[in-house]
Structures are given as C-alpha cells and as structure tokens.
Amino acid sequence: MSGKRPSDSKSAGPVRKRKKIDLEQKMKILKKYEGGQSLSSIARELDLATSTVKSILNDSARIKEHVKASAPLKSTVITKQRSGAIYEMETLLTMWMEDQIQKCVPLSLMIIQAKAKSIFEGVKGKYSDPNAKFMASPGWFNRFKQRANFHNIKVSDEAASTDTKAAEKYPKVLRKLIEECGYTAQQIFNVDETGLFWKKMPERTYISKEEKTMPGFKAAKDRLTLLLGGNAAGDCKLKPLLVYHSENPHAFKGISKATLPVHFRSNRKAWITMALFEDWFINLFIPEAEKFCRENDIPFKIMLIVDNAPGHPAHLDDFHPNVKVVFLPPNTTSILQPMDQGVIANFKAYYLRRTFAQAVKATDRESGKTLRDFWKSYNIYQAIINIAKAWAEVTQVRLNAVWKKVCPQFVHSFKVFEKDETYEEVADEIVKLAEQLELEIDVGDVDELIESHGAELSNEDLIELEAAKVKEQTEAEDEAEAEESRHFNTEEIALAFHEIDSALARFEKMDPNSSRFLKVNRGIDETLACYRLIYEEKKKATIESSLDKFVRKIERPATSTPPQPSTSKAPSDDPDDVMSVSSSPSSSTD
C-alpha cells in the first residue's frame, strides 16, 4: 500500500485564487466602506476574502498617505520610506546617471554597478553600520530603475565606445541631404550643452586647497549648464542659454533677468531638460534664426544639427515647417559635434582669463583687497557677465573652422585648424595673470581645470552638488518665511479639476481614435489621484467643521448667556415664569 495520502481534491471546496490588489482598488474599497457599505458586502461584490478587506481597512491611513505622496495607483506593494547609506547612494547615483545621459555617455550595467559600489563605500561611514556591504546586484538595479524613473534609459551589458565607422560615413550622408534641400552655410546651425563650475580655481592654488578643508557647501562645486551654438558660416553666434539651480539668486537683487546677456532659466539640477530644450527651440532659437535670415536677406530655411541626447525631443521637426532638425548618429558626438571641436574649450579658457584679469585689477587697488576677498565676493551675476564677454571673444573664423569634420565643404580654408595654438596662447596669458596673483600654476593646471568642467562627476562632486541644492533650499525657505506658505484651497482644486476636464473634453472631440483618448484619460486620472484624495479630504473636513459649528451654536447652554441687570425680575417658582425667562429672545447672545 502506498504511503501517499490519497488526494481529496474532488471533495474539497474551490480554492480561492490569490489576487494582487493595487492601490486603485484599495482606494475604491475604502470609499465604499466610508460610504456606508458593510465589510461583508464589499467582499462579496469584489470577490475578495472578508479578512483581506478587513486588512485593507485597517491599513487605510498608510494607503491614503502613499496615494497623497503620488505613488503609482497600479502598484501592489506599499514600499517603506528609504533612508541611510543606500538612500544617499541612490540619490547621488541618480545625479551621476543623469549627468552622463546629458553628455550622451553610453551606460552599461557593469559601469553603473561599479559607480554605485564606489559611492556607497564613500558615504557608509556616516551611518550606524560602517562595515555594511552592498553588492549592487542586477535585482537591486532593476528596483532602483523603477524608483528613479529610469524606465526608458538604455543600459547595455558592455560599455559602448565611439562609433568611428558611423562617424566616417555620416558626413557624406549629411552632405547629400544638404544639397537635396539646398541649405547654405548660413542656414545650418549646431548647439551643444556644457557644464561650467563658474567659481572653480585650479587645484594647486591655495584658495582651492583652503576650500577643500572647509566643512559644508563649497562654492567651487557650484555648477551651471550652458547651451552654446552658431551657424556653419560662423557669422551667427546664438545668445547662450544658461540654466542655474536657483531661480532668483541673491546676486540678482534689483536686476531684471530680461536684461541679462544670456537666456536665463532654472531648475533644481541646473540641467537642460527636455522641457527647457523644447522651450528654447520654440521661443528662442526659431525667432533668433528667423531674425538673422531677415536681416541678411536670406530665405528662412534652417537646419539644426544636434546630438541624440535624451533631452533633445525627437518631435522637434513638428514645430515649424521651415526648421529641420537632424540628429547625429549615436556615439559620434566627440568626433562630429562642431561645438566640441574647440569652440567650448576656448570659450572656457577665455572665461578663466577674464576672471583672473578681474582679480588682478581688483587686488591692485589701494583698498587692500586680497585675492581671497575678491574670490569670496565673486557672484553668479558677475560670472554671467564674464560668460557673455568670453562668448563674444569666440571668433567667426573659429566658429567656421570647427565644421571641418561634419561639413568640410563649408570651411573657408582647409588650412590645418590647430585649436591648441590659440588655446595655448590663452593658457599662457592665464599663467602670467596667476603669477601677478602670486599663484603657482602652469599650463598643465589650466588644462586640467578646463577639462574638469566636462569630466565625469566624481563622488566628491556629487556630494558637493547635493550640498549646493540643500543650501539653496535652506536659503529659499528662509526667504519665504515672510511670504504666505503654499497650501491647498478647496475652491482652487475644484477649479483646476474643472479646467483639466474641459481640456480633456476638447481632446476627446478632436481625437478620431477613442482607444487612444481613453488610455490618456485613464493615465491622467491615475496621475491626479493624489490631488483628488486631498480634495475629498479637505471637502469632507470643511463639511464636518461647518456641521460642528452649527451643532455647537444650537446646543449652546443658557448658562452661557451674560448675567441680566440687577433690576431684572427675580426668578419665580412658577414654571411659566421660568420658561418665559429662559426662552426670551432678549436673553440670547445670538
């Protein structure tokens, strides 16, 4: 006889299949219960175990908090709040990855894992377990991608290298396109982003060394991003776009941003996002290019060549029929991108030379001002002025010459373009200015500083950039103390929802594809769920408060009325007299 127990599956009742319940359904359960529906009725309606519904109701506070914190409604797990070394490491890793993506640097899983481990080792000493281990497993990385919203980022198994074959073929392809469409050198533009540590000294200077020993935020790590560009003829230099992490720096007090020699924009990370690039393209580049064509009596027909950075929207071609956007092949930026062939490096050298020249002039005065005093007072407004003047120093010859690799037919002279000659001249001048400031540096130090602006962010850079953001937030909070704090207003929320519904109704009328509209509508509803919950809670609180006031008003005891004057009739033993006193309108304070 077999030792196995005979199966009794036929006689057993049906086994309830385990279900995953997302936040959206949990919120429906809470609303049904709060609306008066019984626990057992909800369980039957949704085909759930009564114990499951009860657990959800017991966890209502946590569920509502996660919805208000904008957690995805389709998520089935309520994650715990993260903190400690892992949390800080992921914050800095996110910043590093975004910087690499901005620079079109290909990312591999191996490179990201190595960077994560390196950052973790650098920050874990601040926390309770300095001997903690972090493996940076593929499973961790997949969860990190979800947390950091890197859903569409392509991560290869191996590190990608520069595609030299594509770079060799592309100029012929581009030339054919240019000839077919009839573009001239004046009508073809290129732009590129670059970072600038606007208050950074060469590493070997005493100012740089002193600052490294100081605790807290270090000004040398304060970074901004520039978008620089011009046309292939070199006779149209675009006004720079500058993105800083502060919307209203202290140095701008009394200064209108509209009068700055750059297009000033801001976001917390001081990076050119897709939205900022799109805004620049529509509202700044197109009008500037059209004005240039009009003033030079040439047809308004423009080609803009950009790299394939994620911050460059693929749909830019849709915005204007006269502006064509062409993307360089992946992994060819360092070879083909015109602005990367010497323009940006020379611009940064001009900026440093101008800053050092100002320092020499300031410290030569009889006021006794030292270099340390000058550097401490040097602010973002002064940096912007120097940026504009340094950009003005970039010549038409240089702007034209850098197109040699991608559009050689437009370069006026095929004489070998050696950016190092001009660059070395500027670097020598910087060294001489440094000598007047009693700084011991050489051309190698200047090279190192110029290259550091575009180098990969080190762990120290990441920590300092995060400190800069924290410092900015603290200052903004201090400045906002006198201002009215932000808060949700029931009427304003209702108006916002009405406007959103009106906009969606317009799209529904226009869209011939009803499935597409329903998908968009569902997505918007899910995104706005956190605000709908806040609105419902505020509306409920308002109603309860009004009811409470009303009840207190009608139930107010007679003893709360002020005492009557001494001439009043004394209370009588007659019940009718007592009733007439207590119910008399004149005895009410209301």
TrEMBL record:
<dbReference type="GO" id="GO:0003677">
    <property type="term" value="F:DNA binding"/>
</dbReference>
<keyword id="KW-0539">Nucleus</keyword>
<protein>
    <recommendedName>
        <fullName>HTH CENPB-type domain-containing protein</fullName>
    </recommendedName>
</protein>
<dbReference type="Pfam" id="PF03184">
    <property type="entry name" value="DDE_1"/>
</dbReference>
<dbReference type="InterPro" id="IPR004875">
    <property type="entry name" value="DDE_SF_endonuclease_dom"/>
</dbReference>
<feature type="region of interest" description="Disordered">
    <location>
        <begin position="554"/>
        <end position="590"/>
    </location>
</feature>
<dbReference type="InterPro" id="IPR009057">
    <property type="entry name" value="Homeodomain-like_sf"/>
</dbReference>
<dbReference type="InterPro" id="IPR007889">
    <property type="entry name" value="HTH_Psq"/>
</dbReference>
<feature type="region of interest" description="Disordered">
    <location>
        <begin position="1"/>
        <end position="20"/>
    </location>
</feature>
<dbReference type="Pfam" id="PF04218">
    <property type="entry name" value="CENP-B_N"/>
</dbReference>
<feature type="compositionally biased region" description="Low complexity">
    <location>
        <begin position="578"/>
        <end position="590"/>
    </location>
</feature>
<dbReference type="InterPro" id="IPR036397">
    <property type="entry name" value="RNaseH_sf"/>
</dbReference>
<dbReference type="GO" id="GO:0005634">
    <property type="term" value="C:nucleus"/>
</dbReference>
<dbReference type="InterPro" id="IPR006600">
    <property type="entry name" value="HTH_CenpB_DNA-bd_dom"/>
</dbReference>
<keyword id="KW-0238">DNA-binding</keyword>
<dbReference type="Pfam" id="PF03221">
    <property type="entry name" value="HTH_Tnp_Tc5"/>
</dbReference>
<dbReference type="InterPro" id="IPR050863">
    <property type="entry name" value="CenT-Element_Derived"/>
</dbReference>
<feature type="domain" description="HTH CENPB-type">
    <location>
        <begin position="77"/>
        <end position="154"/>
    </location>
</feature>
